[in-house]
Amino acid sequence: MLNGKRALVTGSTSGIGLAMARALAGAGADVMLNGFGDVDVIEKTRQGLEGEFGVKAFYNGADLCRPDEIAAMMDAAAQKLGGIDILINNAGIQHTALIEDFPTEKWDAVIAINLTSAFHTTRLALPYMKQQNWGRIINTASAHGLVASVQKSAYVAAKHGIVGLTKVTALETAETGITANAICPGWVRTELVERQIEAKAKEGGISIEEAATNLVSDKHPSKQFVAPEQIGQTALFLCSDAASQMTGTTLSVDGGWTAQ
To answer: What ranges do the domains of the chain cover?
Structure first.
């Protein structure tokens, strides 16, 4: 389905981003990973993608707080992959605090990585896509791109911003073969969430599974987590011909959270 396509996925060394990179590679796309983590583990992951799917896979460790490193990463992706057809802006961080207690440096970091980096990657990827009259830009927003929660001012602001950036990108590319869409996941059972579940279990003196159910049930009417692989398949659908006239949309994958 995606044979010959070239994809860059930020924040893809684990969790949702890696699931999306795997889905694209499984469909035949060459990929560039980006993110932080243990160097040996990342290299094993990169080699695993090449061995399992028979594609080319690269890694770039750009710090997405730094526009110069983002530009260098985009150049590297274009050179190593031969171009950029699919851009997935997935990198993100979180910090929770009341607004009056929110550290300004944390606000700046959340906005930089969750929102501003997507602006930089998008502006640098569009020329490659326009040359071919084809491109897919997929932004990982969140249920928090549509609704709010307390103590998450920076994250909610950034994710609402991502939704807005997605819509503007879609309008500016509407007469090309480029689409821009945002996926809005709810609770996804990643390593980060597992740590929250473990803390909740320890605090309440309950089992891991009871803590997990309590956590997800607070927001998801389905009382089930979203699997990273489900987000990967959603991204893959957005790259398909069936989604060629879907642009500027938000796709909620949140167990009914934002339907309430």
So the answer is: 6-187+227-259, 189-225
